[in-house]
Amino acid sequence: MNEEERTTEVRTSEVQDGATNVQRQTVATARKADGNVVAQRVVWYIAGFIITFLALRLVLLLLGAQQGNFFVDLVYNVGGFFSAPFQGIFGEPTYGSMYFDASSLVAIVVYILLAWGIAKAFTLTGSREA
Asked: Please, which contacts does 83-92 make with residues 24 or more away whose CB atoms are closer than 8 Å?
């Protein structure tokens, strides 16, 4: 069973308020994230990275961005790597002219569903709190 670790710190200070001494306490509680939560965050971070490049690729192709620019080439290459399994479903992109890359859109949807499934798998073994 996963137990959550909590750290509680109480700070006490005395303050002079006119002729009266006032004691003030500040309580700070810190919680460490569960391993399942950290794993979910890593999955969504990686998925976000992939989806960002695919979305940028989709927009650049839609706007007809020319190859030869460092940023455009980077987005086309990285995004193309992740959309490669879906290439050929709807045709090949035409670089330099306006083109709607449906394979990048399909890749975005598939990667979101895949990340959601993997992240959800980490909660299967966790206990539910009411």
From this structure: 83/54, 83/57, 83/107, 86/110
Integer Cα distance of 86 and 109 in angstroms: 11
Q: pTM of the predicted model, to two decimals?
A: 0.69
Q: How many angstroms separate the CA atoms of 84 and 114, rounded?
A: 16
In a domain, 117, yes or no: yes
Q: Is the Cβ–Cβ distance between 29 and 11 less than 8 Å?
A: no
Retrieve residue 70's tokens: 């460092």
**Does residue 73 belong to any structural domain of this protein?**
yes
Domain enclosing residue 83, as ranges? 35-121
Residue count of the chain: 130
Each residue's pLDDT tens digit, 55-81: 999 999 999 888 899 999 999 999 999
Q: In this structure, what is the dihedral angle of CA atoms 64, 68, 69, 71, given to the nearest 10 degrees?
A: 80
Amino acid at the residue 60: L
Q: Is pLDDT above 50 for 5?
A: yes
Contact between 15 and 22 (Cβ < 8 Å): yes
Query: How many domains does the chain divide into?
Result: 1
Specify if 127 maps to a domain: no
